[in-house]
Amino acid sequence: MDSISQHPRTTIASVTLATKLALQNAGIHEAPLEAEVLTRHVTGIDRAVFYAHPDRIISDHENQQLAILVSRRCQHEPLPYLLGRWEFYGLDFIVNPSVLIPRPETEILVEQALLFAQSSATKKLGLPATTEGAHQFRILDVGTGSGCIAIALAKHLPQASIIATDISSEALVVSSQNVEEHNLQNQVRLIECDLITTRSGIFDLIVSNPPYIPDAEVPSLQQEVSHYEPIIALDGGSGGLGIIKRLLKQAVNHTAPDGAIMVEFNPPQRTALISIAHSILPDATCKVIKDLAGLDRLLVIELEKQPIE
Ligand code: GLN
Hints:
The protein is 40% helix and 17% strand.
C-alpha cells in the first residue's frame, strides 16, 4: 500500500462540509457561505472552480491554514479580518483590527455624497472657470479608518480633491495602503488629527462615519464587534453623540456656504441629533436617510437655504 492511499481523501467538498459544521456549532449564522469563502480563500480558487470541481484534493498545507482560520472564526473573530480584505461599494479594501470593517449601511453615505456632488456640479455648470464656485469639488472625510468612503468617492468623482483624517495612526497605515492600491495618491490626502484640523481649509462636502455607539452599549454589541473591532472607532462616549456634536461645531467653520455635511449615526438618536444640528446650524436644512434595514442612519445637512416654493 502506498503512503497516499492511507490518507483519507481530503477534497474541497469534504473540508467545506466539515468547516460548515464547525462554524454552525460555534453559532456562526452564515456558516454555509463562510465555509465556502474560507475554503476558497486558503485554496485560492474562484466560485466557478469551487462548484465545478468539488473533488479537487486539498493539500495538507491548505488544510492546516484552514484549520487555523476556522478555529479563529469559531472564537468569533470577524471574517473580514481573517481574509484581510473586504468589499465596500463594489471596491476591494485591505482591513485589519486597526480599522472598522466597512458596512453596507455606510454605502448610503457614499450614494448621498455622490448625489450632492452631482447636483452641485449641475448648478455650477456654465460658470466661467474664474468664478468663485467653479473650483474643484472639495471633500473632507473625517475619521476615515480604512479609507473606504474617501476612496469610493474619489473613484466616482475623478475631479474631486479629498482630504481624509483619522486620529489613529494605525488606521492611517491601512488607509494609505488602500489609497495606494487604488492608485489615488494624487486625489486623496491623509492627515493624522482629531476630527478636523484648523488648517484643513474649506470644503464643499464634509462626510463622516464617526464613533457613535453610546459607551454603555459597546459591551453588548455582537462579540465580533465588541471583542475585535477598534473601540476608538465605535465608542461615542456617554450618550453616543459627543463626538458628532464636536464634529458639527468644527464643521461649521469648514463648510462652503452652499456645502453639505453628512454624518452616519445610531438610529435611536435621531431626534436628539437633529436638535443638536439645529442648534449649531439654525439655518441649514436637515434630512434623514434610512439604511437598507429601514433604520434612520444618515443625517444630511445642506447649508444653503432652500428657496421657498
Ligand atoms: N454601525 C456600527 C455598528 O453598529 C457602528 C459604527 C460607528 O460607530 N461608526 O457596529
